[in-house]
Amino acid sequence: QFAIVVDNNQVLKGVITDGDIRSGILKGNDLKSPVSAIMNSSPKSLPKNSPHSQLVKIVKKYKIKQLPIVDENMRVVDVHINTD
Questions:
Q1: Checking CA distances to 22, which of 4, 8, 30, 31 falls within 20 to 30 Å?
Q2: What is the rounded radius of gyration, in angstroms, for the C-alpha atoms of the chain?
Q3: CA 83 to mean position of chain CA atoms
Q4: DSSP output for 52-72
Q5: Distance CA 46, CA 29 (A)
Q6: Does residue 76 surpass a pLDDT of 70?
Q7: Predicted structure pTM score
Q8: How far apart are CA 7 and CA 60, in angstroms?
Q9: Mean per-residue pLDDT for 38-66?
Q10: Residues 14/2, Cβ–Cβ less than 8 Å
């Protein structure tokens, strides 16, 4: 359902969902198209050590199931997966 796109330094560059892939195909992309053509390059993320209440607020507000957790350099250090 969800893949995180990072660079060689594990810096968050975007996310891509199965829905993004389907939408990209409908727009003329194919499975050989670069991921950058269909990924969300401005994904929601949360700094590590953020309060749980902030995580819950973002997940509910944007109705998302997966949320990358990043450090101060935007490197992905964890992923929150909402099971509700």
A1: 8
A2: 14
A3: 16
A4: HHHHHHHHHHHT-SEEEEE-T
A5: 30
A6: yes
A7: 0.85
A8: 28
A9: 94
A10: no
